[in-house]
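This follows on from our talk about sequence and fold. Go ahead and set the record down below:
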Amino acid sequence: MLRILLLIFISPLSWGACDISKFNILEIRALHNKFSEAPSSDNAADLIMAMPDRFCEFNALYGYDKEAGPLYDSPLYNQFEKLTAYIDHKVLINKYVALASEAKWDADSVNYLQYSYRELFLKHPKESIASILSLPKNKARTAVNFLFDGPHPSQKILKEPTRSKICNINSNFCEILGKVESTLLEKEHHH
C-alpha cells in the first residue's frame, strides 16, 4: 500500500521535472537552422542558451524514446563540433557537465552529446574535472560514467599515457574514474 501511495505522489513530480512544454520548439529549430546557415558567435550563443541544461529535457527534445523527440532531426552531429569555434570552452564544459550529470548513453543525439563532451574533456581536462567535481558526489559519478558509457565501454576507457595525465590533475577524480571504469567493464563483461 505504501509503495502505491509513493508512486501516486512521486510519479507526477518526476514527470513534471522533464516537461518540455516550456521550450519553444519552432524557435529552437530556427536557431539550429540559423547557426547551420550562418555560424557566428551570436548564433552559437543563442543556440546554446536555448538548449536545456537538464538531460531529461535534452533527451525528450533531441532523443528517441518510444518516438522521436520534436528536435530529433536537428543537426547536432555537426553543430556540437562547430560550437567549439564560437563558444568559450568553459561555457561548453559547464553545459555538457550539467547534462552529463544526469545522462545515460543512447544512440543518435545522445551519442553526439557524449562524443562532444568527451572531446572537450580530453582537450580541457583541468577545467572539465573541476566542473565535474563541483557536483554532488552521485552526479559527479554519473558525469564521469557518461564519458565512457555505451555498448562497448572498453573501447572508450582512457589508455596510458592519457589516463596518467588525467589522474595527475586530481586524485579524487582518478578514484571516481577507477570505480566507473570497473563498473562499466564488469557490466560489459556480463552483457
